[in-house]
């Protein structure tokens, strides 16, 4: 019988605060106002970090997509520039021929 009483005595352990381990929480162990404010602040910070991380991932995705299409865009802009410079050179040649003709004959070509 003594062994059984010792087992019961050991199974009902007491916490340092004097409350039995596993007992229902007392109002003293409920969240205080400061703890509640800290939890709410932590939730806002966690939400902000998640939002920032999502924006970072989106920006990285957009950057990679743009970087992959950049070689095609470079070819396109080089082709456009070449066409523009060629047409400008043609216009300058026509203007130069017209001015040379006018200078040599005294009147523009008809």
Please provide a written account of the structure:
- By secondary structure, the chain is mainly α.
- The longest helix is centred in the middle third of the chain and has 73 residues, at about 35-105.
- It contains two helices and no strands.
- Helices cover about 75% and strands about 0% of the residues.
- The protein has helices at about 1-10, 35-105.
Number of helices: 2
Order of helices and strands: HH
Helix proportion range: over 70%
Our Rg estimate from Cα atoms comes to 42 Å
Q: State mean pLDDT (0 to 100 scale).
A: 79
**What is the oligomeric state here?**
single chain
How many beta-strand elements? 0
Query: Uncertain regions: pLDDT < 50 for 5+ in a row?
Result: none
Largest sheet: none
Shape: rod-shaped
**Could you tell me the strand content as a percent range?**
under 5%
**Computed structural class:** mainly alpha
Q: How far from one another are the termini?
A: 133 Å
Task: Please tag this protein with its features.
110 residues, mainly alpha, 2 helices, 0% strand
